[in-house]
Amino acid sequence: VTVGTTSFDDLIACVSAPDSLQKIESLGYNRLILQIGRGTVVPEPFSTESFTLDVYRYKDSLKEDIQKADLVISHAGKGAGSCLETLEKGKPLVVVINEKLMNNHQLELAKQLHKEGHLFYCTCSTLPGLLQSMDLSTLKCYPPGQPEKFSAFLDKVVGLQK
Fold it and tell me: Which GO terms describe its molecular function (predicted)?
C-alpha cells in the first residue's frame, strides 16, 4: 500500500483494520507493506506465523517493493507516478480514491484506466468488498514505455490541453 509523499490516513486505517487484515490473509497474501508518508495513523508492525505487517514512511524508491508485490494498492496522487510505475511493471493495481480530495482529477484518471481494463479502483469504504470480489486475471497489461500517452491523458484530464 502506498500513499506517496502525502498523507491518506483513511486508507491506512481502513487497510490495517483487523477485518481488512483478515480478509487480505484469507485471499492468500502473507505480507502487507504500508508506506504511510506523512500520515498520523501509524499501525503497529507485527509478525505471526502466517502474516507480516511492515510499516514505513518513505524510501528513496518503491521499485523494489513494487517488483516483489503480488498486488499494489495505491492512492491516486497528483503525479500518478506510483500508479504508472506499477502498471508498467505489470503488477495488479487497486487505486483508492481519496474522497476528501475530489478536486484533483484522480477519479477521472482511475475511471479511464479501469475502463481500459488496467486497474480496479474504489474508495476506502468499498475497498474491503472490492478485495473480496475482484478477479485479477481480468486485468490487461498496460503497454509499457508510453509515458507520453499517459502524460497527454493526464494533461487532458487536468485541463492543460484541449
Answer: N-acetylglucosaminyldiphosphodolichol N-acetylglucosaminyltransferase activity
**DSSP label at residue 6:** S
Do 42 and 55 touch, CB atoms closer than 8 A? Answer: yes
CATH 3.40.50 fits 9-158, yes or no: yes
What is the number of alpha carbons within 13 Å of residue 77 lying toward its C-beta? 18
Q: pLDDT tens, 36-60? A: 999 999 999 999 999 999 999 998 8
Long-range residue pairs from 115-122, CB within 8 A, at least 24 positions apart, any chain: 116/140, 118/87, 118/93, 118/142, 119/83, 119/87, 119/92, 119/93, 119/94, 119/95, 120/93, 120/94, 120/95, 121/76, 121/94, 121/95, 121/96, 121/97, 122/94, 122/95, 122/96, 122/97
CA separation for the pair 91, 52 (Å, rounded):
20
Residues facing residue 34 across a β-bridge: 55
* 162, pLDDT greater than 60: no
Side-chain-facing half-sphere of 65: CA atoms under 13 Å:
19
Are the beta carbons of 96 and 74 closer than 8 angstroms?
yes
